[in-house]
Amino acid sequence: MTRWSGRGALVMTLALLAGCASSGEMREPNPDDPWEGFNRKVFAFNDVVDRYALKPAAQGYRFITPDPVETSVGNFFSNLGEIRTTLNSLLQGKGTNAGVATGRFLINTTVGIGGLFDVATRMDITGREEDFGQTLGAWGVGEGGYLVLPLLGPSTVRDTAGLPADMYTYPTTYIEEDKVRVGLTALRVIDARAGLLDQEALISGDRYSFIRDAYLQQRRFEVNDGQLGEDPFASDEFDFDDEDFDDAFAE
């Protein structure tokens, strides 16, 4: 699917970057961020978790994992996300995009050997990723205030309400074996974090504000299907690979 490293993750790209930034200084109140004091505290907590756990794990993963294998891991998790896109596209009345997502899943699952290879994109079969937060937006639900969730990172009231539905439409949720389910989830998170290591240098100024504004702008772009203008992250600088997770922390 056409993605800015997925969203997702988002719920994972910027979500993970929340753990890479310092709390910064308080600035003028932002109407989009009514709980900024609380959010900055959670932001600082996420920073500690990332600094001492997630980032070192991601660096080790990148060091020992060959690039083709890392790409295949990202493709695998991204392919599972096509099911979520199909369902949410149908809920939004986007039959064409639902068909594209279904086609991508079938092609990549079969010809792409379980989704390890993104054959569909090479065939120029691409569409828009959709999640339940976007579906709520399409149904007219307001985004609400900006939220930083513990461990999950940037969100809004609307996107947070959509997380349970996103979790239950992701296939790994239904794996009965706890060790397998937890192991795949951990791999998904670490792989997504590894995909963001090179992007941390792009954050400038007050990192909290930078990530907040970038997240909100991107989500509004996605909810409105690009009607707000050009994708603010469509440049080469923000052209992350498929293995980045764009919804990463939707579970």
From TrEMBL:
Alphabetical keyword list: Lipoprotein, Signal
Top-level taxonomic group: Bacteria
InterPro entries from the UniProt entry: MlaA
Region (Disordered) residue spans: 226-246
Family: Belongs to the MlaA family.
Residue ranges, compositional bias (Acidic residues): 233-246
Protein name, UniProt field: VacJ family lipoprotein
Coiled-coil stretches: none
Transmembrane helix recorded as keyword: no
Species whose genome carries this gene: Halomonas pelophila
Signal peptide from the UniProt entry: 1-23
Matches recorded under PROSITE patterns: PROKAR_LIPOPROTEIN
